[in-house]
Amino acid sequence: xxxxxxxxxxxxxxxxxxxxxxxxxxxxxxxxxxxxxxxxxxxxxxxxxxxxxxxxxxxxxxxxxxxxxxxxxxxxxxxxxxxxxxxxxxxxxxxxxxxxxxxxxxxxxxxxxxxxxxxxxxxxxxxxxxxxxxxxxxxxxxxxxxxxxxxxxxxxxxxxxxxxxxxxxxxxxxxxxxxxxxxxxxxxxxxxxxxxxxxxxxxxxxxxxxxxxxxxxxxxxxxxxxxxxxxxxxxxxxxxxxxxxxxxxxxxxxxxxxxxxxxxxxxxxxxxxxxxxxxxxxxxxxxxxxxxxxxxxxxxxxxxxxxxxxxx
Amino acid sequence: xxxxxxxxxxxxxxxxxxxxxxxxxxxxxxxxxxxxxxxxxxxxxxxxxxxxxxxxxxxxxxxxxxxxxxxxxxxxxxxxxxxxxxxxxxxxxxxxxxxxxxxxxxxxxxxxxxxxxxxxxxxxxxxxxxxxxxxxxxxxxxxxxxxxxxxxxxxxxxxxxxxxxxxxxxxxxxxxxxxxxxxxxxxxxxxxxxxxxxxxxxxxxxxxxxxxxxxxxxxxxxxxxxxxxxxxxxxxxxxxxxxxxxxxxxxxxxxxxxxxxxxxxxxx
Lengths: 312, 268
Ligand SMILES: Nc1ncnc2c1ncn2[C@@H]1O[C@H](COP(=O)(O)OP(=O)(O)O)[C@@H](O)[C@H]1O
Ligand SMILES: [Mg+2]
Hints:
The complex is a heterodimer of chains A (312) and B (268).
Chain A: E1 6-17, E2 23-35, E3 40-44, H1 51-58, E4 66-71, E5 74-75, H2 79-82, E6 85-88, H3 100-110, H4 115-128, H5 144-155, E7 162-166, H6 174-189, E8 193-198, H7 201-207, E9 210-215, E10 218-223, E11 232-240, H8 244-249, E12 256-259, E13 262-268, H9 273-282, E14 286-294, H10 297-305
Parallel strand pairs in A: 3-8, 3-9, 6-7, 7-8
Antiparallel strand pairs in A: 1-2, 1-4, 4-5, 9-10, 11-13, 11-14, 12-13
Chain B: H1 2-17, H2 22-41, H3 46-70, H4 72-79, H5 82-87, H6 93-129, H7 132-135, H8 147-169, H9 174-189, H10 191-200, H11 204-216, H12 226-230, H13 237-264
Helix pairs in contact in B: 1-6, 2-3, 2-6, 3-6, 3-8, 6-8, 6-13, 8-9, 8-13, 10-11
Bound molecules: adenosine-5'-diphosphate and magnesium ion (MG).
């Protein structure tokens, strides 16, 4: 019933490559996707998958070859949408001669904020991204990681409902990555819709309500991380009330460790638990938990991405 | 409108930060040094020479600002990718072009005003120190208000050159834009010759081409009334208004074309 925050419909982009005889290179191929309000979506894919292209189309920095992109019910590029969104470009860069505070005041002004209001907003935001102390320093002297933080601050200057972040973790040190992850989590908790791209899957695992997986310009899977068709690689079975001898009798001593008086048994894919459970029950063991062990997102990724296809 | 203003102020601020206004100091030092030297070397002619020199320097200094900042207004944003975040803000692409243009014209206006004031100060000082009988040999008073139309037309010409630079930079590299702008600046001063061209060639095709070029290329010579003013010839208000009107129309056409190209561009 309610309009999705973001709608991509058959979005396609060809770049002309080659100087003398330009040929179209399909960077994005018929991508259709909806992101609901308040969702934190991880837009994942290896380098060259088409993530940045998608975000540029959403910002109307480039025009689509086919298809449409809508934000909050407005076509991409519409000023009504721009008022309510924030965008962190990939490896952002701003104006050397401005300080972070001046940049935010300039950008705040473009949203109609008065200088005083924009300055107040700048102070809050720069503190929030950990640049409070450097706010009067010229951006020329900022490191890559600091620019990334300024990039986040400027994306939030209008208190946006929808936030687009292109590789927000890139260029950050481990502390920076942790801060950024925490910030994205907060943005989601504040009810904002967050669309962030990454080629690093562990970023998404911790953060996203849903992921969309891109490869070679195509959307190859979307869904909640828990629902995606990850291969089951085995199970982890925790039982209590069984002794190490009982487990040994079942020939499982290799894959068993004892934790707090419980036996934690790693079952491989060829040892389905339904065969072992009755045996353990006969030895008086009680099942504490049984969890499937999925392939990691990385493994999934490699499996789907490295399908035979053209190399480009 | 407010958006265009904010962008314009940003351009002005950047040019101040880029130390563009330092050229004013250079201008003042050159002018004062030159007038001192000229005062030592010549008798009676010095005011005229200084007026000539001051007006020409205003034009040349302005020209360099117009071209070198003009070509970077848009291309620097694209090259350094600051355009990505800027265009995601609630601004339309034509507002970006118009704001950038207005900002540089504002910068030029400040420059021209300060340079003109410096020139008047130097001339006023000369007038103050010279004897009455010496001043009687002057064709026009030193701090002659008749120079104002000439200064205004220098500014109008610079506004046109800025539009040229901005136009070229929406689709070509900064270096090519600079070459094209300087090229047109020179051609623009000899544009009137194209009109006579048709009387000296036989080929009708060549004559038509010459005429087309005459109308398409900017005519910059009419903006140069420095010599007339220095030699005491009057420049009428009507002439200034006509020339300014021509400049405004040409600028409007250039900006329209720049907006047309810029609005369709992919920033990849
Ligand atoms: N300016 C460009 N010109 C030509 N091809 C491009 C351009 N930008 C990106 N591409 C191509 O488009 C595809 C998608 O790129 P991109 O969207 O940048 O991927 P990602 O952000 O997922 O790493 C790649 O094959 C890339 O080579
Ligand atoms: Mg990318």
